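Moderator note: this is an archived Q&A kept for reference. The question asked for a predicted structure of one protein chain; the sequence and the answer are reproduced below.
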Amino acid sequence: MTTTTSADGTRIAYTRAGSGPALVLVDGAMCYRGSSPNYALAKELAAHFTVYTYDRRGRGESGDAGPYAVEREVEDLAAIVKEAGGEAFLFGISSGVALVLEAAPRVAAPKLALYEPPFIVDGSRPRVPEDYPTRLDQALKDGKRGKAVKMFMTEGVGLGRAVVAMMRLMPFWAKLKRVAHTIPYDTALVIGHQAGEPLPAAWPEVTAPTLVIDGGRSPDWMRNGVGSLAKVLPSAEYRTLPGQTHIVKATALAPVLKEYFLR
């Protein structure tokens, strides 16, 4: 295990693989190096980039000094970029997109790529309830990690209750419960953009060239959010991967990232 130290003294664990320009992959909710779609993506990209994957705070082998603040996660990502030589391309997936957008103006990132942030910008799915963060915090305070994961899957992600009931019978449910305490971290990153309203020009300072990507088989609400993001970012292009969903295949995504970052 390789580690670096964030600005507040938190240990952040990371893996470096491959050779070439530095590229940092940023996970979404409840993902970490031992349980992440970015693991397969890193393997696909390592022939062309020096790829950095890391455990966001509170997950895997990273520490978790409190209290939590989005700024602390920005500092964590900045620490990884420093390990990468002070400059790196950034790729974010799902709620990791919001973290990349927060961090991009504060680190040297010549290009960004973003896959399917969970932004709700219209009425194509119910908005996340205003009291969701409070109820989520209470479930975790009461030690009800399974309840917190269920809330995230149904109210945050928008999955049907029957689907989530089946998920609770699967072996990976135990992994999700172990990192349930980090769900509020991702909630803090995205909740301001899940109210069913158009995105404001919230990131005018993100001026780096940015590729915004979605999957052709993803739900309308998610694709609408991705399209909206591409319109409000100052220097963005928008691309759809035919046949892909939010669980994007590394073999479909990696060639697009390679072409974009090395262009």
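Archived answer notes: The mean pLDDT is 96.
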